[in-house]
From TrEMBL:
<keyword id="KW-0732">Signal</keyword>
<comment type="similarity">
    <text>Belongs to the multicopper oxidase family.</text>
</comment>
<dbReference type="Pfam" id="PF07731">
    <property type="entry name" value="Cu-oxidase_2"/>
</dbReference>
<dbReference type="Pfam" id="PF00394">
    <property type="entry name" value="Cu-oxidase"/>
</dbReference>
<feature type="domain" description="Plastocyanin-like">
    <location>
        <begin position="35"/>
        <end position="146"/>
    </location>
</feature>
<feature type="signal peptide">
    <location>
        <begin position="1"/>
        <end position="24"/>
    </location>
</feature>
<feature type="domain" description="Plastocyanin-like">
    <location>
        <begin position="376"/>
        <end position="468"/>
    </location>
</feature>
<keyword id="KW-0325">Glycoprotein</keyword>
<feature type="domain" description="Plastocyanin-like">
    <location>
        <begin position="161"/>
        <end position="296"/>
    </location>
</feature>
<dbReference type="InterPro" id="IPR011707">
    <property type="entry name" value="Cu-oxidase-like_N"/>
</dbReference>
<dbReference type="InterPro" id="IPR045087">
    <property type="entry name" value="Cu-oxidase_fam"/>
</dbReference>
<protein>
    <submittedName>
        <fullName>L-ascorbate oxidase-like protein</fullName>
    </submittedName>
</protein>
<dbReference type="GO" id="GO:0005507">
    <property type="term" value="F:copper ion binding"/>
</dbReference>
<dbReference type="InterPro" id="IPR001117">
    <property type="entry name" value="Cu-oxidase_2nd"/>
</dbReference>
<dbReference type="InterPro" id="IPR008972">
    <property type="entry name" value="Cupredoxin"/>
</dbReference>
<dbReference type="GO" id="GO:0016491">
    <property type="term" value="F:oxidoreductase activity"/>
</dbReference>
<dbReference type="Pfam" id="PF07732">
    <property type="entry name" value="Cu-oxidase_3"/>
</dbReference>
């Protein structure tokens, strides 16, 4: 009898413990997306676009911090396809990043299931195709990570939440654009600007209430200026970081960048322009939307509010006002400022100079004299399985070489827990946008001219933002600090040839298993 009682108690304890384990696991969200072609008249001309579940832009992905996402993607296109999750940190799980360095593309009439977690993140992000020129045809959408209810936020809960995907747009078919780039031609000037896939959208709110606007530049190549007629914009989050809350009349938003603002409807009841227009272009393209007061008694009127007349210097000064809110938390209870990145000594420095070069009579874009080409096997798989000949860590120098440009699969080696100082030197007369796949960094400093070691004296080593992207104005250097953990990270400019891969030597126990092609 005594043995049966003891055994019964053991079963009860195990059952209770199992229930606790189940309840402690973060929620799982399941999605099935089908990618197809469709025809839409975006700028008044019917053209082929990429749809996800028959939607353009694609479905919004709204998740909560630490949610697990299981997303089955079915490719019904006639070309291989991948989606990448712009800004999501693939912690110990770079196999789900959705770029050619980590994933084999999904063949036509096939499917692949992405499995990743929005671990310890909040903020406004987006997803987009990373293969060929698919991004020029659509396939992009919003990815918003909302804070857990137990985590306070440094502002009152807004009365509503709007997502705006802004970006340049081209009438030319994406396959023709790909052929043109492959032939050595530059990307053409865009034909227009869109807000949520349209030239005009309406957002409705109640007078006296405050609304959140999540804005992402999902375009190919053009920086945009965003503004709302007669209203101040309070910036509260940039790239997943809560910021010092300043008020702005205009915001420059570069390719790949996402920002979150709060807008209070404190004006007389009427309709007001929402404007996104191209920056740093001789011809200014504009898309307008409408902020509609629910008790409005007048249609939108008056001239469209103009963008700032100042160019690069003004934009750089605005960027310097984006500072970490050190006392605020982000996705966790501890304040953002509890991690003192400026007190860690960098272990490596890379100086990366971009260039537009002629190789075999064709225009290609290069970094330190190397124009990137994709290997036959995704780099992460080649690294994991020690496949020889796929890449070399000696393919690119750590500083500008001055040599004639060549093509190679450029890979830079790092070690676990390295703090890497990376300097981007833009010597071209164009804006450059760099994206760090699967991770982020602190933008420690930027300015005009050439970088030198003395530039470190002006670094912000206290409250710089963590970001997964960086926009570089012409003739600008920008320095960031990157704490190296993931096995594979790719920085890429969204034009053929200008990319670098970084491979981190990582113990196998710290990395999840690869997904087979």
């Amino acid at each position: 009898m005594g043995k049966s009682v003891i055994l019964h108690l053991v079963f009860v304890v195990l059952a209770v413990f199992s229930v606790c384990l189940v309840n402690a696991e973060d929620p799982y969200l399941f999605f099935t997306w089908t990618v197809t072609y469709g025809t839409r008249s975006i700028l008044g001309v019917p053209q082929q676009v990429i749809l996800i579940n028959d939607q353009f832009p694609g479905p919004g992905l709204d998740v909560v911090t630490n949610n697990n996402i299981i997303l089955n993607l079915i490719n019904k296109l006639d070309q291989p396809f991948l989606l990448t999750w712009n800004g999501v940190k693939q912690r110990k799980n770079s196999w789900q990043d959705g770029v050619l360095g980590t994933n084999c593309p999904i063949p036509p009439n096939s499917n692949y299931t992405y499995k990743f977690q929005a671990k310890d993140q909040i903020g406004s992000y987006n997803y987009f195709p990373s293969t060929l020129m698919h991004r020029a045809a659509g396939g992009f959408g919003a990815l918003n990570i909302i804070h857990r209810s137990v985590i306070p936020i440094p502002y009152a809960n807004p009365d509503g939440d709007f997502t705006l995907l802004v970006g340049d747009w081209f009438k030319t078919n994406h396959k023709i654009m790909q052929q043109s780039l492959d032939a050595g031609n530059p990307l053409p000037f865009p034909d227009g600007v869109l807000i949520n896939g349209q030239t005009q959208s309406t957002f409705t709110g109640d007078q006296g209430k405050t609304y959140m606007f999540r804005i992402s530049n999902v375009g190919l190549s053009t920086s945009l200026n965003f503004r709302i007629q007669g209203h101040k914009m309070k910036l509260v989050e940039v790239g997943g970081s809560h910021v010092i809350q300043n008020l702005y009349d205009y915001l420059d938003i570069h390719v790949g960048q996402s920002v979150t603002i709060l807008v209070t409807l404190d004006q007389p009841p009427k309709d007001y322009y929402i404007v996104a227009s191209t920056r740093f272009t001789e011809t200014v393209l504009t898309a307008t939307g409408v902020l509609h007061y629910s008790n409005s008694n007048a249609l939108v009127s008056g001239p469209i509010p103009a963008a700032p007349v100042n160019q690069f210097d003004w934009s750089m000064e605005q960027a310097r006002t984006y500072r970490w809110n050190l006392t605020s938390n982000a996705a966790r209870h501890n304040p953002q400022g509890s991690f003192h990145y400026g007190q860690i000594t960098p272990t490596k420095t890379f100086v990366l100079a971009n260039s537009a070069s002629s190789i075999n009579g064709k225009l290609r874009y290069a970094v330190n004299g190397v124009s990137y080409i994709n290997p036959d096997t995704p780099l992460n798989l080649a690294d994991h399985f020690n496949i020889p000949g796929d890449f070399s860590t000696n393919s690119i120098s750590a500083v500008p070489s001055g040599r004639a440009a060549t093509v190679a699969t450029s890979v830079m080696p790092t070690s676990l827990h390295d703090l890497i100082e990376v300097v981007f030197q833009n010597n071209e007369n164009t804006i450059q946008a760099w994206h760090l796949d699967g991770y982020d960094f602190w933008v420690a400093g930027f300015g005009s001219g050439q970088w030198s070691p003395d530039s470190r004296k002006s670094y912000n080593l206290v409250d710089a933002l963590t970001r997964h992207y960086s926009g570089l104005s012409k003739f600008l250097d920008r320095s960031f600090r990157l704490l190296g953990q993931p096995r594979y990270v790719e920085c890429e400019v969204y034009i053929v040839g200008q990319a670098i891969s970084r491979t981190t030597i990582l113990p196998e126990s710290l990395e999840s298993s690869p997904q087979p092609c």
